[in-house]
Write a structure and sequence with these properties.
- It is a single chain.
- The chain is mainly alpha-helical.
- It is built from 15 helices and no strands.
- It has helices at residues 2-5, 21-38, 47-56, 102-125, 130-143, 149-165, 174-191, 197-202, 212-232, 250-257, 266-273, 279-312, 318-337, 342-360, 371-379.
- Helix 4 (102-125) packs parallel to helix 6.
- The longest helix has 34 residues, at 279-312.
- The radius of gyration is 25 Å and the shape is globular.
Length: 393
């Protein structure tokens, strides 16, 4: 309805004078992705394989970091695995001090989440297999090579929620974690400015003494986003009843392609590109209050389903169910308060709930009480309800 009332779904690649249809297509495929995942239940004996393939496929991101270091004859590779672009500012074939290896960072996130989903915190630290702890620590460190603060926050929050949901705080390993944390903090405070540039940038959200270049880079990114939010939030009320939609008119495209656009304000740029770097704004501006209501309903229904699958599902899948609930909850928090966008975020949400439904064969419910227990309760005057419904009288 929003698309119909705000210019339609235009795809300039198909000759339309209105652009912006890509956003609608992405949302549509994100929704269809849920039904694709849940169309057929994952065979119980194949759950481990499917989860491995799903998360470890993210390791191919590392190929994008090779762009500055491969000969031009191999550039066709990046038509399939896009170059990250963060490490291409220096001379070709050299590693710049400020290079950010985004692919390595995303590879670290992929393996980190895979280990949590496959083994859980108990399976990593209490299984008696040191190689799991080594891999877990190694790939967590590799996340820092991307220099993204949001990835560190995402993985840290997911780990701690799963840690407590699995009851690890009541085990003998809790004092070990406390001691290791104190040691890490003790070493990090004096030596933070000696770490690689990307490590310092990823830790810029903490009050540490880091390199001034890394601090300014991180702060500049934060201030740029805050400026976008300050310019955009006053416009929200006018789009609450009818959202702005994603349509980009021919005039807006002309402004964007003109030379004078380089002097446009951040607000003008965001108004055309609609890349608000804020989850709430990415919902309220294009779809108004109705989009916010729909998304909140979807979150509530998904969290309820994930919780029921964790509480009532097959004990064999308890680890993955705990992980999916923790991961979805962290994604919601990140979307609301750290960084997010509806176009990219909705497919991530639908994939998580889709995996849960496909693994568990739907939404699990508490098992009904045996008939013998029900009969005993009805016959016992101490446990029988004082007021019975009329249909039981």
């Amino acid at each position: 309805m929003t698309a119909k009332l705000t210019g339609g779904i235009g795809l300039r690649s198909f000759g339309s004078e209105v652009s912006g249809g890509k956003h609608y297509v992405t949302l549509l495929f994100g929704i269809l992705g849920y039904f694709a995942l849940t169309a057929v239940r994952i065979p119980p004996k194949r759950v481990g394989l499917y989860i491995s393939l799903f998360f470890l496929s993210g390791c191919v991101n590392v190929i994008g970091d090779l762009a500055p270091y491969v000969p031009s004859s191999l550039y066709f590779i990046f038509a399939f695995f896009p170059a990250s672009g963060y490490d291409m500012e220096g001379k070709p074939g050299t590693i710049d001090f400020n290079a950010r290896f985004a692919g390595v960072g995303f590879m670290g996130v992929s393996v980190f989440l895979f280990l949590l989903s496959r083994y859980g915190t108990r399976g990593i630290f209490l299984s008696g297999r040191p190689w799991r702890i080594l891999l877990f620590g190694l790939f967590f460190v590799s996340i820092f090579f991307g220099g993204f603060r949001s990835l560190i926050i995402l993985c840290g929050m997911t780990f701690f929620i799963q840690f407590f949901m699995e009851g690890m705080h009541r085990t003998k390993i809790m004092p070990v974690f406390i001691f290791a944390g104190l040691v890490a903090v003790t070493l990090l405070i004096p030596f933070a400015n000696k770490l690689p540039y990307t490590f310092q940038r990823a830790l810029a959200f903490l009050p540490l003494n880091i390199n001034q270049v890394a601090r300014l880079d991180a702060e500049g990114s934060k201030e740029w986003r805050l400026e976008i939010w300050r310019d955009t939030y006053p416009k929200v009320p006018q789009y609450l009843l009818l959202g702005k939609g994603y349509a980009i008119s021919k005039d807006d495209l002309a402004i964007a392609s003109s030379q004078s656009f380089s002097y446009a304000s951040t607000a003008d740029l965001v108004s055309i590109a609609q890349n608000y770097h804020s989850g709430p704004l990415s919902v309220l501006m294009p779809f108004g209050a109705w989009g916010a209501i729909a998304l909140l309903w979807f979150w509530f229904a998904s969290l309820r389903a994930l919780y029921l699958n964790y509480r009532c599902g097959n004990p064999t899948f308890q680890t993955i169910n705990i992980f999916l609930f923790s991961y979805f909850l962290v994604k919601v928090v990140m979307f609301l308060f750290v960084f997010g966008g509806l176009e990219a975020g909705l497919p991530e949400f639908t994939v998580i709930i889709g995996l849960s439904v496909s693994i568990n064969g739907g939404v699990c419910r508490p098992a009904p009480a045996p008939a013998s227990i029900i009969n005993r309760v009805e016959k016992d005057p101490l446990t029988r309800p004082r007021f019975q419904p009329f249909y039981q009288r």
